[in-house]
Amino acid sequence: MGSALQRTINLALQFQLKTNCQLHTAISSIEVTDHLMPLLDDLEPTSDTRWMSSERRFPWQKIISFFLPSNHLQRYQLYANQNYLQLPVETISPLERNTLACESGPDVGLVDIARHQKKGILKVNNSIKVAGQFNWQIPNEQFACGLSTSLYDHNPVTGEVNGEPVADCFGICAQENNAILMIADGVNWGYKARLAARCAIHGAMACLNQQLFEKKLTTTEDVFERIKAAIDAAQELIFKSEGSLTTLTISIVCPSNRRWLVCSAIVGDSNAYVYSRKQKSVYELTQGSRDLNNERDMRSPGGALGTTMDEKADLTNLTYSIMEIEQGDFVFLTTDGISDNYDPCVSGTAASIKTPLLARKSSSAITHIPPMLMTAYERHLSSLKQMYLSIADNGEELTALDICNRLLQYVIRLTDEQRQIIEKGVRENEGIEGLERNKFEMEMRKVVGTIPGKLDHASIVTYQVR
User: Fold this and answer.
1) Is 395 helix (H, G, I), strand (E, B) or coil?
2) Considering Cα of 168, then 404, then 110, then 123, what sign does the dihedral take?
3) Where are the domains of the chain?
4) Fold of 99-413+451-464
5) Nearest CA to 379 among 354, 361, 399?
6) Which residues does the UniProt record annotate as the domain PPM-type phosphatase (predicted)?
7) What is the per-residue pLDDT across 239-259, written as a single tens digit (0 to 9) for each?
8) 250: closest CA among 277, 217, 226?
9) What band does 444 get if pLDDT is binned at 50, 70 and 90?
10) With a threshold of 0.90, does the pTM exceed it?
């Protein structure tokens, strides 16, 4: 290699060091590699690497990038940032629009965004396109589907389920070589919360089904630009329809030559994951939205779309992320009714090192062994391990529906004791009123708070990379 080019690269690298920028991948396959490697040793990428897009790079960065391998990502390494322009930029293959499966739920899901939610839609007209599709009830149990349920107790007197209606909403649209997954969890109870969740999925899905395919996208930055537009569209529709507040998480699986990438964004606490059978692991795609070393307040979503005090979305924890995954992996999104119940301090298998006296314990437990104390980060790792154990197969072929069922069955079983205790208490105290009823409800909350599990709405949507 000519000395002039060698000097140019050396000067560029020195300038890189002085400006405290990071090269995302070491230079290789050029004659001056040995000369440059000492300078690159301290520039290893991290999960929150601030990597500029090609359009924003300085001339010296473009010279360096010419010699870099095209694959910047390490497989299953998460790259996350609140600004998607700071994420690595990957080339993607053309996205095909041939829809193979699509579903939204629970019930009719994103199809019903009428303001008067109590009436609901009894019959869907599939001759009219809604959010880019004619029919939102075409799941495929093998590779694209979702499920929702309520973990709340049934009132034995009225027969009604507490917390109705289910304020979650999910949507999935699987094309020939790509997929759009999203999930929303209306904050608190009621029809306004459900309306907000449905509007979020409707607005975001309509935007993506149009903008992802209207012109050829070439990079992951193009994909993130559409995801940002989808979040804005969701917020606009919620506000227009007078919904309340909701979380929103979006993941888009797209091809990159012979690789697979998943681009995600989260507002709130509805998490996204990848299950790798080959790696025998579950990875979280949305963990960049919070500090894993600090305990999260499960009562607060951390961010939300919808009607706030200043009529703007609360994007406090809005985070974008990208991960390279493999064919055969399962990408799944859940509301906190699932993810929180996998926390070992909620399931009763551990206690927080900060609040050991608040450990949960089943009333049927026969041992008095104190629970293991865990830090916030240990709780995170333990929840991923428990998810893997719930999913792990014995060699049989797994389907998207299997993933949904196994995770839901775990949280249903975990919370069963709480439901039984509440329903028994209601039966035994039927007819009480006033101060006596207030006392009963306070005692019931105290008892339930010591038992494993968290009652909530629980939803999941899953896609297998094909």
Assistant:
1) coil
2) negative
3) 3-69, 99-413+451-464
4) Phosphatase 2c; domain 1 (3.60.40)
5) 354
6) 161-342
7) 999 999 999 999 999 999 999
8) 226
9) confident
10) no
